[in-house]
Amino acid sequence: MVLLAGGMATRMGGVVKALVEALPGQTFLDLRLNEASTLERRGGQRVPLWFMTSDATNSTILDALGARRDGYYLETFVQQLSVRLTPTGDVFLDAASRPSLHSPGHGDLPDALKASGLLDKFIARGGKYITLANMDNLGASLDPRIIGYHIRHGKPVSCEVVDKVGTDRGGIPVRLNNQACVLEEFRIPPSFDPNQVRVFSTNTFHVNADALSSLSIPWTYFTVEKKVDGKPTVQFERLLNELTSELPTRYIHLSRTGASSRFLPVKDFPELEQRQGEITQVARDRGMSQQ
Predict the structure, then answer these.
(1) Do 200 and 169 form a contact (C-beta atoms < 8 A)?
(2) What 3-state DSSP class applies to 244?
(3) In angstroms, rounded to a whole number, what is the distance separating the alpha carbons of residues 31 and 164?
(4) Which residues are registered as beta bridge partners of 232?
(5) 74-78 and 49-53 strand pairing
(6) In 3-state terms, what secondary structure has residue 18?
(7) Can you tell me the distance from the alpha carbon of 202 to that of 198, in angstroms, rounded to the nearest whole number?
(8) What is the pLDDT of residues 104-145, one digit of tens each?
(9) What is the largest CA-CA distance in the chain?
(10) Cβ contact 149:253 at 8 Å
């Protein structure tokens, strides 16, 4: 089993999010490393922990990990790069007149992982199941009960979903072409009201390693409009939720509150402050916190 954390390409307040203090004196990266140590102590076996980084953040994360990286049990792999365009379709140039590059979204994870060679090593050593989770969602830890459920139902993917609260929006499970899959709301026809579906995907998946290794998706690239150096740009990204369109998936409806929460995302500092109580409780109960 691997716990594979994405979201290392993102920043919060100008700092690589992995190195932001999620709890006083403990960064998101610290808590994930503590979690891996706790899993080893409780299970008597070391669990590989891999981080997907970006070209812009990889060196910072490597410095933070230092000599603890061993090439297998603790390692990083880097997302690929794409080129930004101007709204008229020309290559967007940065302040130094070079093509402006960007990471093409978390849907890059399967290809980037396969290119790293880590997945092949894992399978060669008898590895069978991989958990994919966002770095900043500390609720998404390895849980033997959920892994057991994934193994028992026999489908190659399990996708965690939680209740919507208030104006929550995100990828929702729907049936398309006779298959249950996750679609972002912007992909849903206007004739269907997404509010009918009262759960959404947390972007946490449990996947059979061999299915991930053999995966070949004609990925959909979505247009994202952003401003870079104050100028409008267009970039193309893909979404990890598209796994569910290709591989048969079972959905697990889980809690998003309290000590059993599986969904504690942190997008900015106000949300981090708001979630401090839950993060503290979950980190303590799951052996992430050393305090």
Answers:
(1) yes
(2) helix
(3) 27
(4) 227
(5) parallel
(6) helix
(7) 13
(8) 988 999 999 999 999 999 999 999 999 999 988 999 988 999
(9) 57
(10) no
Note the pLDDT of residue 6.
Answer: 53
CATH code of domain 2-159+203-247+266-285: 3.90.550.10
Does the pLDDT at position 153 exceed 90? Answer: yes
Residue with tokens 């008898």: 126
CA distance 132 to 239: 13
Q: What are the beta bridge partners of residue 175? A: 180
Q: Where are the beta strands (DSSP E) in the chain?
A: 2-6, 11-12, 15-16, 21-23, 26-27, 49-53, 74-78, 82-83, 101-102, 129-134, 157-163, 172-176, 179-183, 199-208, 222-228, 231-237, 249-253
Q: Rounded to whole angstroms, what are the CA distances from 178 to 157, 248, 264, 291?
A: 17, 11, 32, 49
Domain map of the chain by residue range?
2-159+203-247+266-285
Beta-bridge partner residues of 131: 3, 206
Q: What confidence score (pLDDT) does residue 85 get?
A: 97
The confidence score (pLDDT) of residue 7 equals 52
Our separate counts of H helices and E strands in the chain read 9, 17
Please tell me the distance from the alpha carbon of residue 96 to that of residue 157, in angstroms, as a whole number.
Answer: 44
Quick one: which H or E segment has residue 55?
A: none
Cα separation, 17 vs 57, in Å, equals 10
Asked whether 85 and 235 are in contact (CB, 8 A), the reply is: yes
**What's at 153, amino acid-wise?**
H
> In this structure, what are the phi and psi dihedrals at residue 93, rounded to the nearest 5 degrees?
-105, 140
Q: Answer for the pair 264, 257: CB distance below 8 angstroms, yes or no.
A: no
140, 134 Cβ separation under 8 angstroms: yes
pTM exceeding 0.85:
yes
Two structure tokens written together for 178: 């006779």
Helix axes of 28-43 and 58-65: crossing angle, nearest 10 degrees: 50
